[in-house]
Write a structure and sequence with these properties.
This protein has a two-stranded antiparallel sheet with strand order 1-2. Helices cover about 40% and strands about 5% of the residues. The chain has one domain: Winged helix-like DNA-binding domain superfamily/Winged helix DNA-binding domain (Arc Repressor Mutant, subunit A, Orthogonal Bundle). By secondary structure, it is mainly alpha-helical. The chain is globular and about 50 Å long. It contains seven helices and two strands.
Amino acid sequence: MQRTSLTKNPCPVARALDSIGDWWSLLIIRDAFDGVRRFGDFQRSLGVAKNILTARLRRLVADGILALEASSDGTPYQEYVLTAKGEDLFPVIVALRQWGEAHFYRKNERHSVLVDRHDNKRVQKIQVLSSNGKLLSPSETLVKKPSALE
């Protein structure tokens, strides 16, 4: 089955998913935020086949989400680091984490938590706010299609 490209789709969600829409890519990005930088470390963390990991890393580099850099410890290895574009995915990863915590764990079931390094307290829930700071529900938003913008 051939993959359909969404790079020309008018929907920003579709275009984003064209780049990061499979679980391995999102888990690679999650690990990169957690400090994983080397191929072998990604492979150990994820347990993914090397060919799949290679393909996903290549795509993330080609899309400008990760960049290859010389090893930080002076060894001949290369490391994958998040670019500014990749770091912009942080709220996406946090939102997925918080959604998972809310819907896929039993009450009092233990799981990892995201905390602020400075005070060791849990990060507040991500919220969608209006331009004046009011909390918005889905029914209070509207997607304007390209034809409506012209």
